[in-house]
Amino acid sequence: MSMNRRSFLKTSVAASAVLAVSHAMTEDKSRPIRLGIIGTGGRGTGLLQTLLLFPQVEVPAVCDLVHNRASQAASLVERKAGRPPEIYAGSELAWERLVERADLDAIIIATPWEWHARMAVAAMRAGKYPGSEVPAAITVQECWDLVRTSEQTGLPCMMLENVCYFENVMALLRMAREGLFGEVQHCEAGYQHDCRFLMFDEKGELTWRGHHAVTKNGNLYPTHPLGPVAQWMNINHGDRLVSLTSVSTPAKALQHYAARKFGSEHPAARRAYALGDVNTTLLQTANGRTVTLYFNLMTHRPYDLILRLEGIKGIYLGTNDSICLEDDKKPSEQWEPFAPYRQRFEHPLWKALRGPALSSGGHGGAEYLMFHDFLKAVQDKVPAAQDVYDAAVWSAVFPLSIESVAKGGKQVKFPDFTSGQWKKKPPVPVCGA
Ligand SMILES: NC(=O)c1ccc[n+]([C@@H]2O[C@H](COP(=O)([O-])OP(=O)(O)OC[C@H]3O[C@@H](n4cnc5c(N)ncnc54)[C@H](O)[C@@H]3O)[C@@H](O)[C@H]2O)c1
Is the overall model pTM greater than 0.85, yes or no? Predict the structure, then answer.
């Protein structure tokens, strides 16, 4: 595909219309969409299973560092297609050959974080549409690389932020657009998920996630909570994130966990970890609104994204899945269950695809809806509702929070990755399939 920078930017400014475009058309089963998958560990295999549910999807190539993982993924493809995909494996750079294949439309990236941006940039340079796992980048330079490569090549890039497709998140997007909360002033959200078991292998050696916990201190997984919030608050669409300040507690919980699991004399229990147990980041927008993000993989606790949406006329809180809206006929300041609102304000995409989404699994159907949008965007060669600027801005919290924590919580500025486009971009609309 060739699109010059100007036409791409025009398309990007109209990115909100993309949801409309991608939702307005039915799936074109006659034209296959050919995908290459890089990274077929836990997540990549799950994504592949969801993708294989779409009739238009073909997977001619899979890649993993570990051959056995790639061949397991290949057998899933073979079960659907009747023939196996080509396998690229055995070296850290085997994916470079996959990306260069002439027969691929898009590349799904589900490798460790440090590879995402490099692979997405290479995909765009090779003329393919990347769909990258979260976060899409882990340095500010990588965020710029994604934006500039997309602008230079005319290829869009979607970060696969699945939480934006959760049923409550999409119903809330519709409610926010219909004005039920009034002007949204503040949101609070977090990735709070005891993931200590993912930091070590069975012998107590560090996994790739564990290595990040040894070397980095900040919010290392910002996009699950920030994606929905950014859409509710029209970040990059009339407002933008301008600064953050971030602080972390000391790092104690991973040593505690390792001592219980591997014994107090095990190196995993005696090593120093950089990543504080609880990181708190306060973001400010150009229009003066605020977002608080929490990041906690380390303490013994139930999973909770918080997802508090607070407007002048009401509040939603995901922790108790409750809502309180201004209403003269009801006693004020009482929480009400959100379930009836979720039904009443069901997002049209959920209405249209509820059956196949729910039977697909994948975070309660969210991945199915996400790929519905991704595949339409690939087919139409346009940016998806989550465009490259969202990928850059949402991911930038990773490096900027590290910088702020290292400077004792000093305020750090966000670059304007959109180069001013945020002022003109209309909000992401609420459209059906
Ligand atoms: N969106 C979500 O809900 C969600 C859930 C889980 C994981 N993730 C993301 O998915 C990604 C993968 O996570 P995971 O849990 O599957 O990890 P994993 O360790 O299970 O899988 C990663 C895979 O990448 C492979 N790999 C590493 N380097 C490679 C390279 N250079 N080339 C090819 N393959 C390489 C590994 O061998 C492994 O099989 C991460 O970015 C993670 O944050 C997202």
Answer: yes
